[in-house]
Amino acid sequence: MPPEEEPFPAIVCEGDTDRTVLEGLAAKGVLRPTTIYPKRGERGGLTEQVKGIRALVNFGARGLIVARDLDEAPDGPALLRRLAHDLGAEAKVTSEQPPLLEFKGCKVALVPQGLPGDALMKKYSVARHAIDDFLLRLLEQSVGERPRLFSDEAARDRAFYKLGEVRELMVRQDYKVNKSKQLVFLLKAMGGYAVSDAMLARQLVEGTSEQTLRLVFKPLTDDVNASLQVLGCS
Amino acid sequence: MQAREPNPSLTKTGNMGSVPLLPETAHHCRAQADITRWIVRAAKERNLQVLATTHSLETVDHFLAACSEHSVEFGLHHTELKDGVLTCRGVGRNDARVLMDMGVDPRCAA
User: Fold this and answer.
1) Nearest C-alpha of chain A: how many angstroms from B2?
2) The domain containing residue B67 runs over which residues?
3) How far apart are CA A218 and CA A216, in angstroms?
4) Is A45 exposed, middle or buried (0-12, 13-18, 19+ CB in 10 A)?
């Protein structure tokens, strides 16, 4: 017997960490449950994302949500133009706000991932925004929740203070530290927490209360909900 | 376990006849792989077009692999009867590979 039809429209993200976060949010009821691709780990990155969008559209998709990190463009409209460029001449931008394009008869809504303008990102000079911005925010916000990188607020404050120092040292040595992914990595190292980014993301989302998740991920969930509306899913 | 070669009479249909194929029925998945590889090889040797229907993702995967191995064209088509209307949508080998690698279930993906 064929399986039941999947929830529609699907979200196509860039890779493991993004998918893990979005699936975790859906499992917690923070995000409307939907299908998130790629489901398997081996396909990641922008090139593979574009291939995946093309294949889904060629297979008959009429509405898709594409989640992309803001690291390749300064804002949503620029990211939308970049996506249209990546998809080729058949992609036409139909709206910048909400970010929407049409590709071979399929409506593609874009969800830009990242927290530009966030005080924590500014404090640590994060310039290339991504899903990891939310993880950094979550680490700063979810004291005492699992995984216990920081046992209490004092430990958290010390770790973030040291993070600033290490970042400064690295910048002085001409290392470019402008992504939250790098900062999360440093925090993992400082806390002796040896897991992959995707695993940390999963544990963080699973271990954080729904209330905190709703607060931290509000910009992302608002964008996903706006995309669902524009694709006709109320 | 190795799958046995199908009945030799089935291989003598030339390029005119049709061959009923049930590669997914009650076979171990490794045997399915052997059978699909044999089907694709035989089709290539005889310049045949093969139409196979399946509800099995593994069978789709095996056909994709066998067609790639033998450089044979492959099309993945999904047919659906809804409200009395039969619709069909399909993709070629490259898109089918991408969909399968992404974890898309072509039986239900919109």
Assistant:
1) 28
2) 8-13+21-102
3) 6
4) exposed
Does ipTM top 0.90?
Answer: no
Question: Is residue B110 situated within a structural domain?
Answer: no
Count other C-beta atoms under 10 Å from residue A223's C-beta: 21
Mean pLDDT by 10 residues, chain A (234 residues): 60 92 94 86 80 94 95 90 96 94 96 95 94 93 68 85 94 94 92 85 90 94 92 80
CB-CB neighbours of B46 under 10 Å: 13
Residue A106: its chain B contacts at CB < 8 A? none
Nearest CA in chain B to A41: B102
The alpha carbon torsion through B39, A43, A77, A132 (nearest 10 deg) reads 160
Q: pTM for the complete prediction?
A: 0.85
Looking at the structure of chain B, the number of domains it has is 1
For residues A132 and A139, what is the distance between their CA atoms, to the nearest angstrom?
A: 10
State in words which class domain A10-114+217-230 has: alpha beta
Asked if the Cβ–Cβ distance from A39 to B103 is below 8 Å, we say: yes
Domain-embedded: residue B61? yes
Cα within 13 Å of Cα(A233), Cβ side:
19
Contact A68, A112 (CB under 8 A): yes
Instruction: List chain A domain ranges.
Output: 10-114+217-230, 119-216
Residue A208 to residue A30: CA distance in whole angstroms: 12
Residues in B closer than 8 angstroms to A9, CB to CB, are 110
